[in-house]
Design a protein that fits this description.
coiled coil; TPR-like_helical_dom_sf; 1% strand; ubiquitin protein ligase activity; mainly alpha; 5 strands; Armadillo; single chain; 77 helices; three-stranded antiparallel β-sheet; 1406 residues
């Protein structure tokens, strides 16, 4: 290192001096990297110095000894580099705060030194550089840069200095100001925020000031004293003990009584102590606000001296203001000291008064808060957090004010007896108090020590979590902020999670250390979470943290992650999410490769079971989730079932059982079959490990339920014994039901039947069926499978099994279950009874014939009418003796096809023997034949065939053929036309038992309604042939002929035929009246009604229903009223359909009073009744009453809604019509029909509701309603009125040949209204050509002239002001009409003049 000062450059060679200078520059460059402040400025200086080094190196290479000009240059450089070096070293070593406060002078010194060095460089003789142009240019550029260098204080430093200056000048900087200032200084110079570090740095700063005094730098010392006075107000610059000593020293020097203010403190104008004293140009002092008001009132003289004043001159009297503040502070200090005792001794009112006074003082100045703290008020205030809520609220406010920006106050609150606990208790009180308490705790939590204490108070975090969801926004925000502050502690985070706030637990789980993650995962694993909690956790992303932990190398981490997932996985949505995130693959990997922990395996298997359960409850509309991604996963998991312990096996079995009931069950069952699941599961059922039985049995039943699995080669006697043992001993209803199901699905082999007998299967199953205590969720399944097991025990080939089953009373139970069981139970009971009944003919005993003389012979035994012998339930399994016929016949009418077939099979056993008549008679007596005939129309071909088989036997007998033949005829003919070849043959055989001659013709006709394969003429020809046949043979087929004629319909022929029917019936009259009602004319209905009554046929309820409907279509109500009178005498006045038709009649005829009276008198009303009256009111425009009735309806159908929409639309209430339609759309069960659309579209057209109209079009297209011309026309009109001419044209074209006058009118009107007059005329021409109405137009004009008819005059309206004026074409009644027409003619001439109007067919917009 070279010496700092080169004493005599002339004594040393220049090269040596330059070398020393270069070394000094290098040291300065190195030191510049270590400076504590103004680093950017020193880096700039460093850059300049580094650029100087090559220049000096070049000079040094010249070996110059002495050169006066160079010597002077080197001397200046040496001196300035020494200054730069010294400044740089100072900024590396001195106190950071001191350097920051002097940053301006440091920047200035750097700037001066840099410029001096640059000036010295410019003095280097350029001749010494051998005319190196590059070096010369570099020196020139460097000199310019350094001479123009400007070093500015760093932004942070400048802001801090301004804040210091402001605090000193204003003299009102408080503790908060000082704390913030000190924090900014610490951040700027890199001091840790801890109090100890700040205190140490501040003490060093004060030492620097002492050094300044020793240097006798008084100006600097005074400035630093002011800065110290400012910073000493910060908490970190002095200990609480130091502050306390300083405070009490000052307070004790003041005395104990407040001082009166000096006279000079008073404002001469207000006579109050001044706050902001200002001096006027007269030298008098006043309160600023008072003197400004004096001037504002127009006064310009001094209030005291009355001399003129310069109103623009108001100088602050800082000295007086400081004196007033010192006086106020002295009195406030004495007041604060004296109030503490009052809080301890006063009554509640006095305490409240003192607290209000204390709060005001704390609000006035921060220094007052510090004095309150130093006077040790905090323990007293904490003690006041007692029963009085008003006192508590004030105390909480004051404590928050005291704790604000004061670590000492926070510490004192925490050390007060039960201080934090008392505050926490307020969280659970009323919201106002809780809000104050949480605000106080939030402030206290800014201290690390107090924050830790808050979290440890029992119940605090729970109350905060509750408050974080409060309706009070401020309280909720403060609670959330406080929870965030408390989340520094893992224990607090756990408490938050237990209070259902998982945010911070999830953060720790995601980004914490390994130990923290373990702790958080353990919490999740051990917590009792609600379903909502679990959903929230998974939706918040907990799986992203837990699933990677499953693959962690640490076994403990792996275990705890699996336990957490297990805890979350029993919610279906969570389980599905885990499957989607790939959890199953991770779990399978653990089961396969980690063999060291059985506990881990059990937990993993149990979690997989939960995931399987989740696939049972999947939302519609979303992609279905399968437990297994591939077939390999199925084989992999099932292969593990034999390699792990009992608990793992149970969970895997449970998982497969649930998966076999999921949407993917079919594929899973196939793969299990391929994996030889039957062998494994049967083996498990044979083990003595009863723990594994339940899931093994349930899964085995699931696989055998639909014969998906073959068990014959795997089932042994031990299997059956254990299954029956489970049935006898298990308390789990589902397991018992599954075991029963397996038994019912056992193969039909002799060996298995013997094992069932040996294992006492029949008594066990009988006990289950006799036991009526089954009331669990699997009760139905248990009974179904038990009855299924009876099916297995009642196979006809094993009579021994059947005998034992019958003796156990199972047949009676089966009959019982035909009536009270589920549909599957009924089906299985019927199947079992059919199996029993198949042996009845063989087992019944023959009747012994009596011997001896007739007079002494005992009476003969009565035999079974079916089996022709002695039958009992137990000996011959007779269905007649078991009273099974009635339940079996009722089952024939069930909706389930398989149940009907099983019932029919059982009934067919009664006519399976050689003696048919007895069985057929019993079937007839049990009313079974008609239900069997109805089965001919069944969608099941197999059921039809069995019904045909039965009827073939029944119709062998004349009586039954005559009684039931007509009912079966049409169905039989239909089968001969459309059935399979075998069924056609069988149907023909049945028909052969009936009238052969008629059978040749009728089948052709009876097929008409179904196929309509013939033209009307051909059908009529066939009907005429039948009619001729009946006339020729005398066979009465008039009813059939009349029915067919009305179906075509051919009313004239039907009426003629009816006139020749000698024996008419009410039914035939009703059919004719109904046909005239539908096809007209309506007056013919009344004619037939009169004829019917005249001939003595009494009308029934159907007659009145049809006649009332016919009267509704007449113009006069007279006939309807007359028939109403007859109806009242008829006895049918309670028939709902007739009454509804009556209400509808009056409503349509406009007699709404009568309709309403009839409606109100009805005890029972259905939806059509309501609709009729609503429609009547709507047609008459009484929409209020219509709406009232509509709102009263409990249930509404599409007609109800359409009636209201149509009523509103037809009466011009378009907005209400559209609103009603939009309401209707929201009804899930109601879908608009064509009438609805045709009713609402005019409203859309008139309102311009184009968007709704477009939506209606899409709906109409989707449902095929556009084939309805009314809907199409309405859409065309809507688009036309809304200005969408292109869409209107599209619809017009789409309607095509179906166009009617309405279609043409709508299109022409749309074109005309929107200015397309030429196109409108073209369309009008096309319409006349298409429709051919030219002659009609000519005739109409001629007729008008003949009758002297004139067209109504056209007119227009003009709105003038608030009046509407009407102008009629060619009206000259006005007194000035001549003038008006003259002006009009003049206007017309101008319009047609050249250049004005070129196109009169312009299009109008909007």
């Amino acid at each position: 290192m070279i010496p700092d000062v080169i004493t005599d450059v002339s004594l040393s060679p220049v090269s040596e001096v330059i070398s020393q200078l270069m070394e000094a520059i290098l040291e300065t460059v190195v030191a510049a990297n270590e400076v504590l402040v103004e680093k950017d400025s020193f880096m700039e200086l460093k850059g300049y110095l580094e650029r100087i080094l090559p220049i000096l190196k070049e000079l040094n290479s010249k070996s110059i000894t002495h050169l006066e000009s160079l010597d002077n240059t080197v001397d200046i450089l040496n001196r300035e580099v020494k200054v730069a070096k010294q400044l740089t070293l100072e900024c590396c070593k001195r106190n950071k705060v001191y350097l920051l406060i002097n940053c301006r002078s440091i920047a200035k010194r750097l700037e001066n030194t840099t410029r001096e060095i640059g000036h010295a460089l410019g003095l280097i003789p350029l001749s010494l550089l051998d005319h190196s142009l590059d070096l010369v240019e570099e020196i020139s550029k460097l000199c310019d840069n350094m001479n123009n260098a400007e070093f500015k204080t760093a932004v942070a430093g400048e802001q801090i200095l301004k804040k210091i200056e402001s605090g000193i000048q204003e003299r009102n900087a408080n503790r908060s100001y000082a704390n913030n200032l000190l924090a900014l200084i610490a951040e700027a110079v890199g001091i840790p925020a801890e109090q100890s570090a700040l205190k140490k740095e501040f003490d060093e700063f004060k030492s620097e000031i002492e050094n300044a005094r020793l240097r006798k730098d008084q100006a600097e010392a005074i400035q630093m004293d002011q800065i110290i006075a400012l910073l000493e107000r910060a908490d970190a610059t002095s200990t609480p003990q130091e502050k306390e000593i300083k405070y009490f020293t000052k307070r004790e020097s003041l005395g104990s009584l407040p001082l009166e203010p000096l006279q000079s403190f008073y404002c001469p104008i207000t006579q109050d102590v001044m706050v902001d004293p200002v001096e006027t140009s007269s030298g008098q002092t006043f309160e600023r606000e008072a003197i400004e008001k004096w001037f504002a009132d127009g006064n310009s003289m001094c209030p005291l001296t009355m001399i003129p004043l310069d109103t623009s001159v108001l100088r602050p009297n800082k000295t007086l203001r400081q004196s007033i503040e010192e006086w106020k502070d002295r009195n406030t200090m004495i007041t604060i000291a004296s109030m503490r005792q009052k809080l301890l001794t006063e009554e509640e009112d006095g305490v409240l008064h003192c607290l209000d006074q204390l709060q005001d003082l704390c609000v006035q100045k921060n220094i007052h808060r510090e004095w309150v703290v130093l006077e040790n008020y905090i323990p007293v205030l904490v003690g006041l957090l007692g029963p009085n809520p008003d006192i508590r609220n004030r105390v909480l406010v004051i404590l928050r004010l005291l704790a604000e920006d004061s670590d000492d106050a926070k510490d004192r609150v925490s050390k007060a007896d039960k201080g934090i606990e008392s505050i926490v208790r307020s969280l659970g009180r009323r919201i106002t108090e809780g809000k104050l308490a949480v605000a106080l705790l939030l402030e206290l939590s800014k201290s690390d020590l107090v924050r830790d204490q808050i979290g440890k108070v029992q119940g605090c975090i729970f109350l905060l979590v509750t408050m974080s969801g409060s309706d009070d926004d401020q309280a909720a925000r403060d609670a959330q902020k406080l929870l965030k502050n408390l989340s520094f502690s893992e224990e607090n985070v756990i408490q938050m999670a237990k209070a259902n706030n998982f945010n911070y637990l999830l953060q720790r789980l995601s980004s914490g250390t390994e130990d923290v993650k373990m702790m958080m995962a353990t919490t999740l694993a051990e917590m009792e979470l609600t379903e909502n909690n679990k959903l929230t956790l998974v939706e918040s992303g907990v799986l992203k943290s837990l699933l990677p932990m499953v693959s962690h190398v640490d076994l403990r981490m792996k275990k705890i992650a699996v336990r957490s997932l297990y805890n979350l996985s029993n919610v279906p949505k969570n389980g599905q999410k885990m499957i989607r995130e790939g959890a199953v693959a991770l779990f399978l990997d653990i089961l396969q490769h980690h063999t060291s922990s059985s506990e881990l395996h059990e937990q993993v298997a149990a979690t997989i079971s939960h995931l399987a359960m989740s696939t049972m409850s999947q939302e519609t509309g979303r992609t279905l989730v399968s437990l297994f991604e591939s077939d390999e996963d199925i084989f992999k998991l099932f292969s593990l079932i034999t390699l792990r312990g009992s608990n793992v096996q149970q969970s895997i079995l449970q998982a497969f059982y649930v998966a076999c009931q999921s949407p993917f069950s079919k594929d899973i069952k196939i793969k299990l079959t391929q994996a030889h699941a039957a062998q494994v599961l049967v083996h498990f059922c044979e083990l003595e490990n009863e723990d594994i039985w339940p899931n093994s049995v349930k899964l085995l039943f699931c696989l055998t339920e639909n014969n998906d699995l073959t068990m014959e080669e795997h089932v042994r006697q031990k299997t059956i014994e254990n299954l029956l043992k489970i049935v006898s001993t298990s308390s789990d209803e589902e397991v018992v039901a599954s075991a029963m199901g397996i038994i019912s699905n056992l193969p039909d082999t002799v060996q298995i039947s013997e094992w069932l007998l040996d294992a006492e299967a029949i008594p066990i199953i009988s006990r289950v069926l006799h036991d009526g205590n089954h009331n669990g969720p699997h009760e139905n399944q248990l009974v179904e499978n038990a009855v299924g097991a009876v099916c297995r025990l009642s196979i006809p080939s094993n009579q021994e099994l059947q005998m034992r089953a019958a003796k156990a009373g199972l047949i009676s139970l089966l009959v019982k279950f035909l009536q009270v069981g589920t549909i599957l139970t009924k089906k299985r009971a019927a199947i079992s009874l059919a199996q029993f009944s198949k042996n009845s003919f063989q087992l019944c005993k023959q009747i012994r014939r009596s011997r001896g003389f007739l007079c002494f012979s005992p009476p003969s035994e009565t035999g079974c009418p079916v089996h022709r012998g002695i039958c009992t339930v137990e000996s011959s399994f007779c269905l007649v003796e078991a009273d099974a016929l009635g339940p079996l016949v009722r089952l024939l009418a069930d909706t389930d096809l398989e149940a009907r077939e099983a019932s029919l099979d059982a009934l067919l056993t009664l006519i399976a023997g050689p003696e048919l008549l007895g069985g057929i008679k019993l079937l007839a007596e049990a009313n079974a034949i008609i239900p069997i005939i109805r089965l001919l129309s069944s969608p099941s071909a197999q059921l039809q065939e069995k019904a045909l088989t039965a009827l073939e036997k029944i119709f062998r007998f004349v009586d039954f053929r005559q009684k039931y033949g007509t009912s079966a005829h049409m169905s039989l003919v239909d089968i001969t036309q459309r059935g399979s070849s075998g069924m056609k043959s069988l149907a023909a055989r049945v028909l052969a038992h009936m009238d052969y001659a008629l059978m040749r013709v009728v089948p052709i006709v009876t097929g008409i309604p179904s196929t309509f394969s013939y033209t009307i003429n051909s059908v009529m020809n066939q009907l005429k042939q039948i009619h001729a046949y009946t006339l020729r043979t005398g066979v009465d087929r008039n009813k059939l002929l009349l029915t067919k004629l009305l179906e075509i319909p051919n009313l004239p022929y039907a009426l003629k035929l009816f006139d020749h029917i000698p024996q008419r019936t009410v039914f035939l009259y009703n059919k004719l009246i109904q046909a005239c009602l539908h096809h007209g004319p309506h007056n013919k209905c009344l004619s037939l009604y009169s004829q019917m009554c005249f001939q003595g046929y009494l009308p029934n309820e159907h007659t009145f229903t049809f006649v009332f409907s016919a009267c509704a279509g007449l113009s006069s109500p007279l006939y309807g009223q007359m028939i109403h009178c007859q109806f009242l005498k008829s006895g049918f006045v309670f028939d709902l359909f007739a009454l509804t038709a009556l209400v509808d009649m009056y409503a349509k005829l406009g007699l709404l009073v009568s309709a309403r009276r009839q409606f109100d008198e009805m005890e029972v009303r259905d939806i059509p009744t309501w609709n009729s009256l609503i429609a009547g009111y709507a047609r008459r425009g009484d929409l209020g009453k219509a709406k009232e009735l509509f709102d009263r309806m409990s249930f509404k159908n599409v007609v109800s809604w359409t009636s209201m929409i149509s009523g509103y639309s037809q009466n011009g209430h378009y907005m209400e019509a559209l609103s009603m339609f939009l309401r209707m759309e929201k009804e899930k069960e109601i879908r608009p029909n064509e009438v609805t659309l045709a009713s609402v579209l005019p409203a859309c057209a008139n309102l311009g509701a184009l968007e709704v109209g477009e939506r209606i079009e899409a709906y109409a297209r989707e449902n095929g309603f556009l084939t309805n011309l009314f809907v199409s026309n309405a859409l065309l009109e809507m688009y036309g009125r809304c200005g969408r001419i292109d869409q209107a044209k599209r619809f017009f074209k789409e309607i095509g040949k179906r166009r009617n006058l309405c279609t043409w009118n709508s299109m022409i009107m749309s074109l005309a209204v929107h200015g397309k007059s030429k196109e409108a005329l073209d369309h009008f021409h096309q319409m006349l050509v298409t429709v051919g109405h030219w002659d009609g137009v000519a005739m109409l004009r001629k007729l008008m002239k003949t009758c002297h008819m004139t067209k109504a005059a056209g007119y227009s309206f003009i709105e003038e002001g608030d009046q509407i004026r009407q102008f009629i074409v060619e009206d000259k009644s006005h007194s000035r009409s001549n003038e008006i027409y003259a002006i009009l003619n003049d206007l017309l001439l101008k319009m047609v003049s050249p250049g004005l109007v070129t196109d009169l067919d312009c299009e109008f917009e909007n």
